[in-house]
Fold this sequence. Notes:
By secondary structure, the protein is an alpha+beta fold.
Amino acid sequence: MASDYQDSNPNEEAEETFGxxxxxxxxxxxxxxxxxxxxxxxxxxxxFPGNALYFLTVSEFMDRDEVQDGxxxxxxxxxxxxxxxxxxxxxxxxxxxxxxxxxLDGHHLRASYIGILPDLFFNPHSEIxxxxxxxxxxxxxxxxxxxxCPSKYQSLEEELRESG
Length: 164
């Protein structure tokens, strides 16, 4: 038994096990790195599915029939003054959005939402982003409402225009 142990060379066993050439090790490392990078890329993509949604202004949405087929889209606009209404003792709200500066002549999007509205919803400088689908009743059924905070700083010219 001792002769068997002496006949075997530990370096030969190591060469058999780890006997890959440097180029083979480099290829394995590249393949492993590629698999890890692709896996991470897929996980990042899968974690943010909302980024692939359409993002349209009210006018763009109203002018494009192909996005009014019930698919989930995002529409941004400003709250139309006087259009907000809440049903008695419920969280169901109805309102309209329009493009900034559209006035009465521009497109108006009728929308409804069930839930608690964000605090900045009624700020006249806030941009409202609805995520949902357009119903057969020509009302946008919002699933989520995001409110972009208004700019903290306005130019003097904008301030004078709004107050005058």
